[in-house]
Write a structure and sequence with these properties.
40% helix, disordered N terminus
Length: 1018
């Protein structure tokens, strides 16, 4: 790009800059370079004709905007009480200015509806340490709150101007749950593109418009987005600030649709967050391929990655990690027992055991390629007679002996005598099994309750009644099964056995949830209703799809395994649905154990009961079974057990063979193993929590003290809370109160009062204690339109906002949504005003556009505080993407002297100057002309200080980035085995990294703004 003309920027103007385009003033909301020589600017109208309007400008069409010269700033007297207009303006500028790249401390720890736990802040700290791009794999075990950790990180990115465009990808059942957490906890609205949402949005947006450009912050399911034919064209070329992929272990398999989608998104985003309680399946090349999505240069040998290569990209804690255990004490009920419920097989079930023992398990007549099929058949029967029938029927079809059309269902009539026999031994046995399954089905139907024919059903009903799950009771339980045939059958037979006789009552109380039982939106509704005390669901019958990411603990602490996977990992994943942060009651686990007297038969005692007990033991010692298992994939674990049984290993040895390292013989549950762990085990234990010897952070926070305008002056309670914490925290300048929460409250209330006077609308504001309500203006309603239509409609948000500044009241509102019998939704009736709340952003934008063109307010302060006029200025160095690399907030006085005094504007200096909510406003204004004459000199002094700041930015931002580019150059020359896509892909990755580093370096001229003048009062 050629040199910019005077007053015209050569790089994207940073957020908060006032520019002139098409003869009107605009406030920059965000800006970015979209291609060489072309900048996209998103702005809000500031001058009279366009005030409040949203617009996007391309410099290729509108030319480079004119940035208004700070020397031409016109001073205006502030006549408002306690100078509230000026304080609103200064606070708005502070809020609108993104934190610079120099700043890596957390800024919003007090801005969310969370119980502060340092371990949940660690991922954000770790991600922000990355000089180039915040990228991290969060691998915390089930239940620690990965969603909350993601929310904290996204909030910090937004505060830095790096979260304008966000894409979240999750499993379908988790969509609404994740969206709900982001809004209720972090005030972050995401538009949900589920199957219904996409159709609704396609009808709403202009024809042919890409929804991913129309909406800036989106949440969508992986199964929806992986459809490359439909959504691929929409995603191509879309640049994101941050992408989150939940349950990222599903991306492991190279060549899959999911992996292809992840590789595309990784190329098109700045920040990338992967989250999974099972980060890998033990296949190191596959895992390092996933890590290379985060950092292509991280791993040299994909088969043998070093811990130091992974440390900066991964963080994993378990329930027994020191920091976690201390934080969760009293917030997470201790895990209850895992108990077997023994069920003696019925006469017909014993016949099945006899057939399996005599033919399939004693001398299996199967091909070598299918040598494990007998165990597949056994597990099908241990699930149910219906699952057995389905497996046998599929095997018969594979062998060329498909059942006749009128006999394909277990409920169909029995085969005629001639068709029920075969000279082929395997076919004959399968036919005997299918017909026995039909007999069990008929016996169950003839008995009325089916309890005599199916032992597990009798055991389940007895167990559910024991814990109180029945008609008229509020007690709830989750029942897991591996087989959809079993779940569908249980969904039909259980309700009347538990007292729900009417079909409508049964349909409301008992829900079946698996991939083929309900749409993605219906599954989300089931999860939502199960979490509400007022919901009708008492029994949720679900498959293992719900063992990933779904929260089922809000109203439930009973989980029953109808059948058990032969996998420690899968059992732990299931248990984690109710054993997680926020569980108020000790979670109880039961497993139905079918047992037989047939000699030589295998039953649930053989493997399943041992897996149940071993999972409980390993979890108690290590906090996560993956830290000890040889495999990190539940399917591979099951195959390992089957292979061991096939080799005639004892069941005890088959289960113990799942573990890579022995547990300490007399472990006290401290999570420590006696053996040195290989890398695949280290990454499934606690990992990434310390600094390895060869990984040092050379960033010196003390060096930014001169210009960062941060730290200390926190309120006493907040300071005391942080005293025992090593989390680095920013203390930003505040104009309305000392604490973040009080300052936010007063800013919002003062802003609403001021806007009520200045704008044409009338808000009808009502304030009761810490609660606030007002009529929703149209432009604010537009910002909230991405939230679920039902929530907007039911709570009347588009008509009237109902907010609270109290964490306690907000938490109570969330609790009411869950616990009140009349609640029809988990979405709260009153919403917490966090730092990122759209209302705060809306007021900030409104305040900034109210001040006239190139104006700065004049305030009178005590002569003792300011004997001579003090000019407050802001200076910003930015990179080529318009993001600040360094920011200075300055107070300049003694401007008539040969060497004016320039001070960093700190909280302490703000207080010393008397800038705050109780400012005296009785002083008489002085001569405006004499103050106006000081502005050019104040700008000169600001430029001088910015020269020193530029040197600091060069050392702390630009020099490390130049070194990074040199590393990229060396990396291009290395031999990298196993790099997906070969040399061409590596060259493309290197180009992207070099370009990203170049874009992140400080560029162009600084932006200077005169904020206000403090005049000694008379």
């Amino acid at each position: 790009m050629p040199d910019a003309a005077p007053g015209h920027p050569s790089t994207p103007p940073p957020a908060g800059t006032v520019i002139e385009v098409r003869d009107e003033e605009w406030l920059v909301r965000s800006s970015q370079t979209v291609r060489a020589g072309e900048i996209l600017i998103e702005a809000t109208g500031a001058s009279e004709l366009v005030r409040g309007q949203q617009a996007r400008f391309l410099t290729s069409l509108d030319g480079m905007p004119r940035v208004l010269r700070p020397e031409d700033t016109r001073l205006v007297a502030d006549t408002s009480r306690h100078y509230r207009r000026s304080r609103l303006f200064l606070e708005a500028v502070l809020r609108k200015t993104p934190l610079p790249q120099l700043e890596r401390r957390l800024a919003l720890t007090e801005g969310f509806l969370l119980d502060r736990m340092d371990y949940q802040l660690r991922p954000a700290v770790k991600a922000l340490e990355n000089r180039l791009r915040p990228r991290l794999l969060i691998g915390d075990v089930v239940g620690l709150g990965k969603t909350l950790e993601i929310g904290v990180l996204l909030g910090e990115l937004i505060r830095r101007g790096r979260g304008e465009r966000i894409l979240v990808v999750t499993p379908a059942p988790v969509l609404e749950q994740f969206q709900h957490e982001m809004w209720t906890r972090f005030s972050l609205p995401l538009v949900r593109l589920d199957s219904i949402g996409i159709s609704r949005i396609e009808r709403k947006i202009p024809v042919g418009r890409n929804p991913f450009t129309y909406y800036k912050r989106v949440i969508v399911s992986m199964d929806t987005l992986k459809n490359s034919k439909r959504y691929g064209p929409w995603l191509q070329g879309i640049k994101w600030d941050a992408v989150v992929i939940d349950e990222s272990h599903n991306l492991i398999n190279r060549g899959s649709d999911r992996r292809a989608l992840a590789e595309l998104l990784a190329k098109q985003t700045d920040a990338l967050v992967l989250a999974s309680a099972t980060p890998h399946n033990g296949d190191m090349p596959a895992f390092t391929g996933l890590i290379r999505l985060l950092d292509p240069m991280a791993i040299k040998d994909p088969k043998d990655p070093r811990p130091a290569e992974l440390h900066h990209l991964m963080l994993r804690r378990t329930k027994v990690s020191d920091e976690v255990a201390k934080a969760l004490k009293g917030s997470w009920a201790p895990r209850g027992e895992s108990k077997p419920v023994h069920c003696d097989a019925s006469r017909l079930e014993e016949r099945v055991f006899s057939e399996l023992a005599a033919f399939w398990l004693k001398n299996p007549a199967v091909d070598a390629a299918d040598h494990l099929f007998p165990y597949v058949l056994l597990k099908s029967f241990l699930s149910s007679h219906r699952a057995l029938f389905a497996t046998a029927r599929a095997r018969l079809a594979k062998l060329g002996h498909a059942l006749p059309e009128q006999h394909k269902k277990v409920t169909d009539p029995a085969l005629p005598g001639s068709e029920a026999v075969s000279t082929h031994p395997e076919v004959a046995s399968l036919l005997r099994l299918t017909e026995t399954a039909r007999e069990i089905e008929r016996a169950s139907a003839a008995a009325g309750d089916g309890l005599g024919a199916t032992a597990k059903l009798a055991g389940l009903v007895a167990e559910l009644k024991r814990i109180g799950v029945k008609s008229g009771s509020a007690t709830r339980a989750v029942v897991f099964s591996e087989r959809q045939e079993t779940l569908n059958w249980l969904g039909k037979v259980l309700p009347p056995l538990l007292g729900w006789k009417k079909p409508a009552d049964a349909a409301a109380a008992v829900k079946v949830m698996h991939s083929n039982s309900a749409s993605d939106t219906a599954q989300m509704e089931y999860v939502d209703e199960f979490a509400r005390a007022g919901g009708d669901i008492r029994l949720l019958l679900t498959g293992d799809g719900a063992s990933e990411g779904v929260n089922l603990h809000r109203q439930c602490n009973h989980l029953i395994h109808w059948d058990l996977p032969w996998s420690l990992i899968r059992v732990e994943q299931r248990n984690g649905r109710i054993d997680r942060y926020g569980q108020a009651e000790p979670p109880e686990f039961r497993a139905l154990i079918l047992r037989t007297d047939v000699e030589g038969a295998l039953d649930d005692r053989t493997i399943a009961e041992k897996v149940l007990a071993r999972e409980a033991k390993v979890h108690a010692v290590l906090g996560a079974v993956e830290a000890a298992t040889k495999e990190n994939d539940w399917g591979k674990e099951e195959l390992r057990v089957m292979e061991a049984l096939f080799r005639q290993a004892t069941p005890e040895d088959a289960v113990l063979d799942l573990e890579a390292v022995p547990l300490p013989a007399d472990s006290d549950g401290d999570g420590r193993l006696t053996a040195e762990l290989p890398i695949e085990r280290q990454t499934m234990s606690e990992f990434g929590t310390g600094d390895p010897d060869d990984f040092e952070d050379d960033f010196d926070f003390s060096e930014i003290g001169t210009f960062a305008a941060r730290q200390p002056a926190a309120d006493p309670d907040s300071a005391q809370q942080r005293a025992a914490s090593d989390i680095p925290v920013v203390e930003e300048l505040r104009l309305f109160a000392g604490s973040a929460e009080d300052n936010r409250r007063e800013f919002v209330l003062t802003g609403l009062a001021e806007l009520d006077e200045l704008e044409s609308f009338r808000l009808d504001t009502a304030i009761t204690g810490t609660d606030l309500s007002f009529d929703t203006p149209e432009d604010l309603a537009d910002r909230l339109d991405v939230l679920p239509p039902g929530y907007l409609r039911d709570q009347g948000i588009n008509r009237r906002m109902k907010l609270t500044f109290s964490r306690e009241d907000a938490a109570e509102s969330l609790k009411r949504a869950r616990e009140d019998s009349g609640s029809s939704s988990l979405w709260p009736d009153a919403h917490y005003v966090g730092e990122l709340h759209p209302v705060v952003e809306w007021i900030t934008d409104k305040v900034l556009v109210q001040l006239g063109r190139q104006q700065a307010p004049v305030l009178q302060v005590s002569p003792e505080a300011a004997p001579t006029p003090v000019v407050l200025t802001q200076g910003v160095w930015s990179n080529s993407e318009g993001r600040p690399t360094a920011v200075a907030w300055l107070a300049i006085d003694e401007l008539d002297a040969e060497e004016p005094r320039v001070r960093e504007l700190t909280p302490a200096l703000l207080k010393a100057l008397g800038l705050g909510p109780d400012m005296e406003d009785h002083y008489t204004a002085g001569d405006p002309a004499s103050l106006q004459a000081l502005i050019p000199n104040a700008v000169i002094e600001t430029r001088r200080e910015l020269t020193a700041l530029r040197e600091l930015a060069d050392r702390q931002v630009d020099e490390p980035l130049r070194e990074y580019e040199e590393r990229v150059g060396l990396w291009r020359q290395q031999s990298l085995p196993g790099f997906t896509g070969g040399r061409t892909a590596r060259e493309d990755a290197a180009d992207r990294l070099s370009e990203a580093a170049a874009r992140a370096r400080t560029a162009g001229d600084p932006m200077i703004r005169v904020l206000a003048v403090l005049e000694p009062g008379a």
